[in-house]
Specification:
There is one protein chain. The protein has 112 residues and is α+β, with helices and mostly antiparallel strands. It contains 2 helices and 4 strands. It has a 4-stranded antiparallel β-sheet, with no helix packed on it. Strand 3 and strand 4 form a beta hairpin.
């Protein structure tokens, strides 16, 4: 009889953590959402169209170009340029192919 009680006690002790571990694993599982991909592709800053370069000189002469990106949707190109001010704060500005700034993307310090 002692052996049966001892065996039951061992099963209870060693079997319990396994059951709890299975419950923990089930309660922490979650669905993984697919990552959103950025439609912009990095390009060298010197490959920006002249119209965009002219707009940068005219409207953002006090800022430094840090990076450039392009997105081509249905044959319409949009350029994203990452600019940094003197303090090093970066902001993105969107341009169309004509070098026009897309109004919603104007940095706060340039909006008036």
């Amino acid at each position: 009889m002692k052996k049966i009680v001892f065996a039951a006690a061992l099963c209870a002790v060693f079997g319990l953590p396994t059951a709890q571990a299975a419950q923990v694993a089930d309660s922490t599982s979650f669905a993984v959402k697919p990552a959103q991909t950025d439609p912009f592709k990095a390009i060298p800053t010197d490959s920006l169209p002249q119209t965009v370069k002219d707009a940068l000189v005219k409207d953002f002469a006090d800022m430094t170009v840090k990076a450039a990106y392009v997105k081509d949707e249905d044959g319409v190109k949009t350029y994203k340029v990452t600019l940094a001010n003197a303090e090093g704060t970066a902001t993105d500005v969107l341009f169309n192919e004509k070098g026009e700034i897309l109004p919603a993307e104007l940095p706060a310090e340039k909006q008036q």
